[in-house]
């Protein structure tokens, strides 16, 4: 195999969990909430992301229960056939994750780049 500088890259996931290890919210649900916000529809969001509606609905309900507040509000009927919007707290949670990634990602990538030469010496 021809190995060149840069064949390795950093990959990671960030999620929030309770002190007892119960997962609350991670990258996938953060992206889902953003897609709900952008499409105005839970159905459209799950279709776009390749999730199942029923399981996703239950996952969102579980997250809301663990957090103690609603993330989304659904309305039925109307001209558009109903819509799903983020609550104010849901919007703030999305903004929190946006900011978290905006602040952490450059630092992680910089640290990785600084250490990459040492890593390449190990794998060569």
Count the E strands. Answer: 4
* SSE pattern: EEHHHEEH
Average pLDDT, rounded to a whole number, is 88
Strand order in the sheet with the most strands: 1-2
Count up the domains: 1
Tell me the β content: 5-15%
What percent of residues adopt helix (DSSP H or I)? 55-70%
Number of helix segments? Answer: 4
Outline the fold blueprint.
Elements: E1 15-17, E2 23-26, H1 27-39, H2 42-49, H3 53-67, E3 72-76, E4 82-86, H4 88-123
Antiparallel strand pairs: 1-2, 3-4
Helix pairs in contact: 1-2, 1-4
Can you describe what's shown?
The protein has 124 residues and is an alpha+beta fold. The chain has a single domain (23-112), classed as Winged helix-like DNA-binding domain superfamily/Winged helix DNA-binding domain (Arc Repressor Mutant, subunit A). It is 58% helix and 14% strand. The chain has four helices and four strands; from the N terminus they run ββαααββα. The protein has helices spanning 27-39, 42-49, 53-67, 88-123; strands at residues 15-17, 23-26, 72-76, 82-86. It has a two-stranded antiparallel ribbon with strand order 1-2. β3 (72-76) and β4 form a beta hairpin. α1 (27-39) crosses α2 and α1 (27-39) crosses α4 (88-123). The chain is elongated, with a radius of gyration of 19 Å. The protein starts with 14 loop residues before the first strand and ends with a helix. The model has no long low-confidence stretch (mean pLDDT 88).
Features:
about 120 residues; two-stranded antiparallel sheet; 4 helices
In short:
The chain is α+β, with helices and mostly antiparallel strands and 124 residues long. Helices cover 58% and strands 14% of the residues.
